[in-house]
From TrEMBL:
Subcellular location per the Swiss-Prot or TrEMBL entry: Membrane
PANTHER family: SOLUTE CARRIER FAMILY 25
One GO BP annotation of this record: transmembrane transport
Solcar repeat intervals: 1-66, 73-164
Segments crossing the lipid bilayer: 37-55, 75-99
Source organism (scientific name): Notodromas monacha
Keyword line: Membrane, Repeat, Transmembrane, Transmembrane helix, Transport
Identification of the protein by name: Uncharacterized protein
């Protein structure tokens, strides 16, 4: 997945005409920067999955259970619980997603030592030094606009599938 995230990030940030498409971008990135460049940002991405999923699912299940104690939740309850869970998960894990994106956007110039790419810790330190704590949340609002509909749909489909398959407790 990291390969495609790197390609998406690079294509989005590239100058017009820099790449003819996804395959051209992949070839040019591999030739100029090597295979390792496709895995830039993999560590913060992997580390960020754990708190995001744990917080999101934990809050979703806790709220759902407390709100609808004796019956299966309706769509509105599911949407509300999923939204709150996702927002809380994003607030905790978003700095890692931002660092991942910054790492993926780095163009590696192997011909000059001073242009060596920075690592995850260095990117965190740079953001904190130049922008402060709020810098770790730059771009969070558009991310909510992207993630919340997907999360809402996923949880509604999940709950409706449980009911259709007879996996309910009620």
């Amino acid at each position: 997945m990291s390969v495609f995230q790197v390609l998406k990030t690079r294509l989005a940030l590239s100058k017009t005409g820099q790449y003819r498409g996804m395959f051209d971008a992949a070839l040019k990135i591999r030739q100029k920067e090597g295979y390792r460049s496709f895995y830039r940002g993999f560590a913060p991405n992997l580390i960020g999955i754990i708190p995001y999923a744990g917080i999101e699912l934990g809050i979703y299940e806790t709220l759902k259970t407390r709100i609808s104690q004796t019956k299966e939740p309706g769509i509105l309850v599911t949407l509300s619980c999923a939204t709150v869970g996702s927002i809380m998960g994003q607030l905790c894990a978003y700095p890692l997603a931002l660092v991942r994106t910054k790492l993926q956007a780095q163009a590696i110039r192997s011909d000059a030592a001073e242009h060596r790419p920075s690592g995850m810790i260095h990117v965190f330190q740079t953001i904190l030094r130049t922008e402060g704590w709020t810098g770790l949340y730059r771009g969070l609002a558009p991310n909510f606009l992207k993630v919340l509909p997907a999360v809402a749909i996923s949880y509604v489909v999940y709950e409706e599938s449980r009911v259709a398959l007879g996996l309910t407790t009620a």
